[in-house]
Design a protein that fits this description.
Helix content is 81%, strand content 0%. The protein is elongated, with a radius of gyration of 25 Å. The termini are close together.
């Protein structure tokens, strides 16, 4: 269970690395997908830099009146954009599907917890207490 912080000062002390550690602990079953999505995002970012480099080579060759490799550079630009689009869209699609799947799993867990409670719990407690119990 995540650590519940009630005091705003405690929330400020909840560091970024603690958040990552808690998120990683709760990502069982999705860790492989998260690593894959991170790697494809980094690869897509690196491939997205390649066309700018190839444009520079084309300009250098045109100003130097060497046009031997320009068609290869243009093909490289096309190929880099194609690979970037495929990686980026794959990353978006898989991330979206897994996000929906994990949200549905959490929702199901909370509904199961709600339905397992006695009626006396709902009669004796106000809604704020109910929300606090579900989020624990």
């Amino acid at each position: 269970m995540p650590r519940l912080k009630k005091n705003p000062e405690d929330l400020k002390a909840y560091s970024f690395f603690e958040q990552i550690k808690d998120s990683w602990r709760h990502a069982k079953g999705y860790r492989g997908i998260l690593i894959f999505l991170g790697i494809t995002a980094v690869l897509a970012g690196l491939i997205n830099i390649l066309p700018a480099f190839l444009y520079g080579l084309i300009v250098e060759d045109l100003t130097g009146k060497k046009s031997d490799l320009i068609y290869y550079y243009i093909g490289g630009i096309f190929l880099a954009y194609l690979i970037y689009i495929l990686l980026d869209r794959t990353n978006d699609y898989i991330g979206h599907i897994k996000l929906i799947e994990s949200a549905n799993k959490v929702r199901s867990k909370y509904y199961n917890k709600l339905f397992s409670l006695d009626f006396s719990f709902f009669e004796n407690n106000d809604p704020g207490f109910l929300v606090n119990q579900v989020s624990e």
